[in-house]
Amino acid sequence: MKRIALKIDVDTCRGTLFGVPALIELLQRHEASGTFFFSLGPDTSGREARRFSPGRYYDLVTRLYGLLLPVPDIGVRGADRMRQARDAGFEVGIHAWHRVRWEKLVPTADNAWIEAEMEQASRRFAAVFGAQAQAHAAPGWRMNRHALRLTQRLGFCYASDCRGNFPFIPVVDGELVHCPQVPTTLPTLDELLVSETTSAAQAAERILAESASIDGDHVFTLRAELEGMKYKGAFEELLVGWTRRGYRLVALRDLLSSQNIATLPRHTVVFAEMPGRFGQRMTQGPAFLDT
């Protein structure tokens, strides 16, 4: 049976407090699974909204964080909501320590900074859940070479840090990183909504059409702040549409559970700009021939 793995990025304090429980209820109602990737440290999304996305994808309270309201610590304020997702049977993983800072700085950050950010996120995850994280999903598919290598050193079973077509073992600068990547394969709702003439319902129809046009499993990335709040109705249309088309809605780990990791194809990773996004993102590159 064809599968859609739902990758749920939780970027903000508001998304954690309100988007997460809304998504839990919606997914349970449609008998769907998924993986929640949590931001675990400071939420300065208000500054980001003012500079990059004035008013479109953030509600008023979120836009005020870091401006007129104190910066909340998501891992403290939202710990109960994070555990609620875990206790409801959903897979949970790490998104970032400081999501805004990661997206801005990671392309040129030095190794020490990368290690500090990822280790802080890992420690907070363990404090919230009482266990080490098994999965990582970088904000905005923004990574660098050292961050990719750390997905192996920190012991993640897999990561979902890039865009691509199917699970693979990543190769960077000729070096194999023994942490599988499970890439996002479908366009996101907010990418399609860049055009003012596209409605949320039309974007959902395009995503359904694209998922049906390519055989095999898919990974769809959604955000607690959008599909769990402002565009919850459009996301429910997606869930209904996928179910009617015979897809199972699963967690990311389910895409690897039936595979032998040792036999996954090896692909280089590429850092490049992509439509609908500013700045370089990590994508699945060509097959790597191990000579």
Question: Considering DSSP H and I runs of 4 or more, what fraction of the residues is helical?
Answer: 40-55%
Indicate the CATH topology. TIM Barrel
What is the name of the CATH class?
Alpha Beta
End-to-end separation in angstroms reads 36 Å
Q: In total, how many beta strands? A: 11
Mean pLDDT: 91
Structural class: alpha/beta
* Biggest sheet layout: 5 strands, parallel
Please tally the helical runs, counting DSSP H or I stretches of 4 or more residues: 13
Structural description of this entry:
With 291 residues, this protein is α/β, with parallel strands linked by helices. It has a single domain, classed as TIM Barrel (Alpha-Beta Barrel), CATH 3.20.20. The protein is 41% helix and 19% strand. The strands form 3 sheets. Strands 1, 2, 3, 8 and 9 form a 5-stranded parallel sheet that branches. It has a 4-stranded mixed sheet with strand order 7-6-10-11, with helices on one face. A two-stranded parallel ribbon has the order 4-5. Strand 1, helix 1 and strand 2 form a beta-alpha-beta unit. Helix 1 runs parallel beside helix 5. 50% of the residues are buried.
